[in-house]
Input
Amino acid sequence: MSLLEVKDLTVTHRGKPIVDGVDFELNRGESLALAGESGCGKTTTALALMKMLPEGLKQKGGIVLRPPGVEDPINVHRRTETGMQVVRWRHISLVFQGAMNALDPVQHIDDQIGEVIRLHERKVTGKQVKARIDDLLVTVGLTAKLGKRYPHQLSGGQRQRVMIALALACRPSLVIADEPTTALDVVMQAQVLQLLESLREELDLSLILISHDLGVLAETCDRIAVMYAGRIVEIGSVETVFSNPQHPYTKRLLDSLPVIGGRRGLAPPIPGGPPDPGDPPGGCAFHPRCPYSTDRCLEDPPPVEVGPDHLAACHFSPWSSWPEVEPQKVRVDA
Amino acid sequence: MSDGVKTTAVDPSAGEDLMAVEDLSVHFRQRRKVARALDGVSLEWRRGEVLGVVGESGCGKSTLARAMLGLQETAGGEVTLHGNEATGKKGLAELRRRIQMIFQDPYQTLNPRQRVRAIVTEPLIVQNVDRSEHTERVRRALGDVGMDPDRFLDRYPHQLSGGQRQRVAIAAALVLEPEGLICDEPVSMLDASVRSQILAVLLELQQRRNLALIFITHDLSLAWSLCDRIAVMYLGRIVEQGTAVDVIESPKHPYTQALVTAVPVPTAKGREDRELLKGELPDSTRVPAGCRFNPRCPRRFEPCDKVDPTLIDVGTSGHKAACLLYDPAAAEGGAPAPGYSDTSGEPG
Output
C-alpha cells in the first residue's frame, strides 16, 4: 500500500494552471525526486501536498495519505484548514528552502523546536520537550548545547540541520525537503545529503526531495519525476531515467550537465528559456525548444508507459535512439 | 564528445602570461582581529586560457578576483599585466580596460534605472572611447552575446530574464574588447538550460576572440568541463593547481581529493563510496598553524600541525600541491614552523 497517492493535482492562479494534472504515488520508506527548472511547479506541488499554498492559488485533485498506525486513510484534499493542523508536522513536514529566512532570528534554536512540539502534541511535559529537543539535535548531527544559540550564530550547514530537526520534531512519516542543499558548499551539501539518507533508513521515512540539481537527486532518491511547465513529463526509477531518458527534455537536460570525470566540454545547450508559469505553449509545452518537435506536438501528449514503472509524456516515446542534434545558434527567444 | 563545443587545447606548460599575481595577500581587519582572506597567492593566467579557481565559500576566491583588478587593497604582493606591474592610476586604468569582470547575481549588478543601451555604453564613456564608435560597439557587443540589439537596446533590466541580464552584463564587459574576463560564479544563480547557454556564449568568445577566462566557482563539475587549468583554494591559499585533467582525475592534495568525491554525480549509478570531510572551513582570523588544512585532513601525520607546506611539483605540466605527503624534506623539519600567530597586534 502506498503512503501517499496524488491524483490529478492541479493548482491554478486566476484560472491559469501552475501545476497541471500531477499524478504520482509514494511508498513507505521510498524517496522521490522532483526535478525541474525554476517556475516548473516543484515548490507549488510541495505546498499543495500540505495545503499551504499562498493566497490566490487554488488547488484541485486528490491527495490521500496512509500513515502507518493510522487506520483510515487521510483525505488531505478534503480537509479544512483546522483539519490540516493535525496532519501537518504529525504526518507530513517540510524542510523549507533557505534556512536563514525560515528560522526566527530572535529565538533560541531550542525554543523554536520546542514550540513545534508543543503546538502539535498537547500532552507533553516540559521535561519531555527538553529531552526531545536534545535528542533531535543529536540526531541531525549537532550537539545539544547548540540549542542555546541564535540562528545567526550557526553556520549555513548547521542551520540546515536545524531545519531538518524541525521537520522531524513530531516524527512524521513523510518529509518534503525543498532545495535543502542549494545554499551550501559541496562538502556541506554532501554531509546534509548523507544525513537525510541515514535518517530515512533509521526512521523509515518517506522523502520527497525537490531540487534543480540532478546530481543531488541521483544520489539521494529511488525515483525521479521531471517536471516541465507544471506537468510531470517523465517519471521512473532513478536508474532508468538517468541511463535511458525517454523525454527529450530530460535527455537534453542530462546532456547539458557537466559531469565531473566524464566528458569535457559543453554539449549544445537547450535554446530559449522555460515558459512563464501558468502560460505554457499549447500542446507539449516543450515543443518550441525541442529539436525533435513536429506538428503532432501541438497536441497534448499523454503519458506513455515506456518501461516498467517508467512513464514519459512525449508523442514519440519510447525513443530507441536519439538523433544527432545540430548545435543551435544560441539566441534569446524570449 | 562528438556534438559539443570543444574546449581549447592550450598547452598548459607553455604560453605567455596575460596576468600574474605574486605572493598576493589581502587582510581584513575585524576590530582587533585580522582575517587573512588571501595569504600569499601566486598564480599565472595565460593568454587565451580558461582558468578555474575553485573552493568553498570563504576560501578567498572572490577576494583574489577583486585584488587582481585592484578593487581590493592588498597587504602585500604584486599584480602584473603582460609582465608590467599594474599599479598607480595609469596602470590600473590600463588593467581595467584589458581585464573585465562579471559577477554572480545578474539581478543586482545592473542598474535598474538604466536601459540596456546605457548600461553597455557606460564602460566606453568611462574609458574615453570616441563617441562616434559607441553605437556600433554596443550593437556588436550585444550581438556577440546572442541578443538582437534592436529588440533589447531600449529595455530595462526588469524586462529581462535572469539569463538575459547575465548576457547584458557580459556585453557590458565585452564592449571594451578586453583580453581577459574574470567570471565570479557567472551561472550559479541560473537554471540548468539557461546556464549552458551562458557558458556557450563565453566559450564561443574565448575561441573566436582568444579571450582568456577565469571561472571562479564552487562547482567542480563546471571547472572540470570548461577549464584548461584549475587552481584549488583553501583558506586564502592555493593548495593545488594543474591541468583540469590532472587536478580532477588524479588529485594529490587531500582537500582536493575530498572536494572531488563530495561532488554529486548525475548518473544512474551515482557515487558509491565516499569519505566525507568532517567539520567546516575555519574562520580566516584563526588560520591553523602548520598546514592550514590539517585539523580536517584525513591523512594528517606528525609534522602537519608544525610545518606549513609550500606548493611543490607533484607531476608533469605544472601540477603542484602544497602537502607534506609529497615533500618529505620539509616534513622532516627542513622548513621552520611558522606557528600559530595571533595577528591581533599586527599593524595594518
